[in-house]
Sequence to fold (315 residues):
Amino acid sequence: MAILKPASWAHKATESNILLFIGLLFVFYFFSFVIGAFIANLIWGISILTPNALADIANPAVLNTLKCVQIIGSIGTFILPPILMAYLMSNAPYSFLGFQKSNNGKRYVAAFIIFIASIPIINLLSEWNNRLILPDFLKDLEIMMRNAENNAQKITEAFLITHSISGFLLNICMVAIIPALGEELVFRSILQKLFHQMTKNIHIAILISAILFSAMHFQFYGFIPRVLLGVFFGYLYYWSNSIWLPIFAHFINNTGAVLMNFLQSEKIIDIDAEKIGIDSASPTYIMPLAILVTTASIWYLFKNRSSLRMSNENA
Fold:
């Protein structure tokens, strides 16, 4: 079949390629969801087709079923479609996806510093986002979104609760490694590239991809800070011409949440990372310091963007 030949869609209209990729995402999502549910049913005997079968997240079998579907679904939805799309779009799919090596380790250090320093800023934006109130005529929608947000938070907390190293490593894989790799391939390697081709404006392409990235999480009350994260990931990819840098930054962001939760549950630390910079116990200087360090680190990456792209394009 022509569609299965390498680079068979390279000369199609960009809009057609976007529609093709969206179609691939839905198809792979459906089949990976079915496969995950089938495997979970074989192992733990929980059928997701049974009404309220997944309501009792305190039940280990239900929780394991959710984790199984999550892992297989994430791999099937976010990793396989970009690989197939790259195969259809290019004779060099590895390079098409941006898997060139980012040669300067200082960029990784800068990205790490940004995520540590920006914690108070992200917390403040999350607090503002969480206080958004919709007009009265959208009250029912607001209640629905609040309930969905609370349910998602409960599931996330249940996922992260573990008292073993093996459970911690599983969470790192499920929450950090797979999403960092898969989501960056979808939203940066493919969608950002296609939107750039369509709009001829990288800034618009980055913003559209970031909005879709945030919307995909279906969490309205974390929408704004997640858009900014998506924008940052997008510029990291554009500046470096390597998908490894945004994957690393994404991994650090997600791993931080898993690690802090584990350390708190084990009573090793007594710090709520989500309150840093916004509660009364935070030092008054922490927000200005966060803004200064974050801005300086982003400026460093921006200043060196040309040399970084050239080094990776010639690698």
About this structure: Residues 1-97 form one domain. The longest helix spans residues 165-199.
